[in-house]
Every structure is written in structure tokens, then in C-alpha cells.
């Protein structure tokens, strides 16, 4: 985790040449809690943009704030989850641990609130990318992880297990063979020498 190391003087984002931006979300709020001796940079709710790279999340504040940028590498984030409250915006929460030389010490709980939506999609891509990063699998592009809703609201039907249902070939007279009976439509015949008890109704 690094404080104020990923922004330019003009307020833009600065990342390594080997990284790419997989996803970004506008109108995100970042807040911290459960922090001993909270520095000024961690007080109050920050507003800005959230970026996802193959190895970390980077929050970039809008305006003049003591926290201009905040970088959270996946290996320092613990207990991360996506929350969907009924009467407020969806958010991602977790705990971030400081690393030596990162600009602060200890650990803190964080909350990323997505006021304009996108928490679910961002979180899904983030969890997939973080899992790959922990396994050492490089991420090539965001298209492999991006959520793309279907145009009409419905996705394609799931593939059938044994391929599409094939109708039997018609007979020479143009009619299909009669269907086979399902299950046991009639009572089974009792074995020889056994008497069937009478059925009593009512």
C-alpha cells in the first residue's frame, strides 16, 4: 500500500509501464475506519475514481485533499467483500495492511462506495484478477474478465448436455414412430404363484 505515490502534479494517474488499466469507475467514495492514530490523510470521506490493474487497485482523489492517491496491492488486502445494501449504493469493503515505506503504518478497514453503480462488475473482475495474480497467472486484457450484459436482457441459452435434441427420421409414409410409454403407466404383472392383495378404496 502506498499513499500519494500514484498521481501526477496535474492530478492524473501514474502506473508502471508493465501495467494496464483493466477497469475504472467514476464517482467512488473511499473511507477508512478501525484505524489507531488516524493520520490527516485518512480522515473524512474521499471522492474520486477507482482504477484496477492486474496487481492492485488505485484510488485517485478529486480536488485538493491530503490523500491524492491511494494504492492497494491485492496481497495486502484481506477480508474483501461486495456488499449490496437495500437503501444505499453498493460498496466493496475490506482491510488494508500498510507496508514499510508506504507512507503510513498499521492497518485500516476501507469502504469503496460506488455512487454511480459498477460495484458488482468491478468486484467480479477484481476477484478474478486477484486470484490470477496470487497464482502467478498474468492478465493480458480486461475483455477476458469484463461483464457484458446481453442486449435484450437475456443471455444465450445454456448448451445442452448431449447436444441438440434430434428428432427420429420420419418413416417412409411420412409419420413418426409412436412414442415409447414413460415409466410404468400400468401396474406390473405379479410374479407367478403370488397373489395380489385387493385394492380397497374409501
Automatic annotation (TrEMBL):
<dbReference type="InterPro" id="IPR044852">
    <property type="entry name" value="WBP2-like"/>
</dbReference>
<dbReference type="Pfam" id="PF02893">
    <property type="entry name" value="GRAM"/>
</dbReference>
<dbReference type="GO" id="GO:0005634">
    <property type="term" value="C:nucleus"/>
</dbReference>
<protein>
    <submittedName>
        <fullName>WBP2 N-terminal like</fullName>
    </submittedName>
</protein>
<feature type="domain" description="GRAM">
    <location>
        <begin position="44"/>
        <end position="129"/>
    </location>
</feature>
<dbReference type="InterPro" id="IPR004182">
    <property type="entry name" value="GRAM"/>
</dbReference>
<dbReference type="GO" id="GO:0003713">
    <property type="term" value="F:transcription coactivator activity"/>
</dbReference>
<dbReference type="GO" id="GO:0031490">
    <property type="term" value="F:chromatin DNA binding"/>
</dbReference>
Amino acid at each position: 500500500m502506498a499513499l500519494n505515490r500514484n498521481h501526477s502534479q496535474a492530478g492524473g494517474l501514474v502506473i508502471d509501464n508493465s501495467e494496464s488499466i483493466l477497469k475504472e469507475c467514476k464517482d467512488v467514495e473511499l473511507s477508512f475506519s478501525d484505524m489507531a492514530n488516524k493520520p490527516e490523510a485518512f480522515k473524512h470521506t474521499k471522492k474520486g475514481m477507482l482504477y484496477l490493474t492486474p496487481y492492485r487497485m488505485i484510488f485517485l482523489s478529486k480536488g485538493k485533499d491530503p490523500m491524492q492517491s491511494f494504492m492497494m496491492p491485492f496481497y495486502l488486502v484481506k477480508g474483501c467483500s461486495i456488499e449490496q445494501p437495500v437503501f444505499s449504493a453498493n460498496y466493496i469493503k475490506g482491510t488494508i495492511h500498510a507496508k514499510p515505506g508506504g507512507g503510513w503504518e498499521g492497518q485500516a478497514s476501507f469502504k469503496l462506495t460506488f455512487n454511480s453503480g459498477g460495484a458488482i462488475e468491478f468486484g467480479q473482475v477484481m476477484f478474478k484478477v486477484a486470484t490470477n495474480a496470487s497464482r502467478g497467472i498474468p492478465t493480458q486484457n480486461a475483455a477476458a474478465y469484463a461483464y457484458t450484459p446481453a442486449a435484450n436482457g437475456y443471455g444465450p441459452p445454456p448448451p445442452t448436455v448431449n447436444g441438440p435434441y434430434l428428432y427420429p427420421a420420419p418413416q417412409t409414409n411420412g409419420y413418426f414412430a409412436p412414442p415409447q410409454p414413460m415409466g410404468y403407466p400400468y401396474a406390473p404383472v405379479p410374479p407367478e404363484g403370488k397373489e395380489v392383495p385387493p385394492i380397497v378404496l374409501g
